[in-house]
Amino acid sequence: MIMNRSERRRQQKEQSKDQVRYNLSKADIKKIKDEAMTEAIDKAFILMLGLPVMVLHDKFGFGAKRLERLTDEVLELYDSYNKGFLTLDDIMNTLKEETGLELIQRE
After folding, report:
1. Per residue in 16-66, pLDDT tens?
2. For residues 30 and 18, what is the distance between their CA atoms, to the nearest angstrom?
């Protein structure tokens, strides 16, 4: 079917109603990205702390007091990491030297 010019414009107008457009500044985009990143980091941190805490409780019998002490110490260490007092390499090297445990196999 052949459409005349006014029919094509009407069809384009109908299609554009479904598409919402926003004008965002670079600062707005950066803020949205930063918020999404912070949310993702928070969720990942809770997951990576929650899994070992559950294992310690379920498989090794740790109670509320010991788990609370553990999480407090982990949060304190995480705060030191965030402040730049230690790095991931520091953590991995210390664990390797003191316990022989390698968290990540290096190539």
Report:
1. 776 777 888 999 999 999 999 999 999 999 999 999 999 999 999 999 999
2. 26
Q: Please tell me the distance from the alpha carbon of residue 19 to that of residue 17, in angstroms, as a whole number.
A: 5
Task: Count CB neighbours of 81 within 10 A.
Answer: 14
How many angstroms separate the CA atoms of 101 and 69, rounded? 22
Identify the residue with better confidence: 20 or 102.
102
Q: What single-letter DSSP state applies at residue 41?
A: H
Give me the helices (H) in 18-63, please: 26-60
User: Are 54 and 67 in contact, with CB atoms under 8 Å apart?
Assistant: no
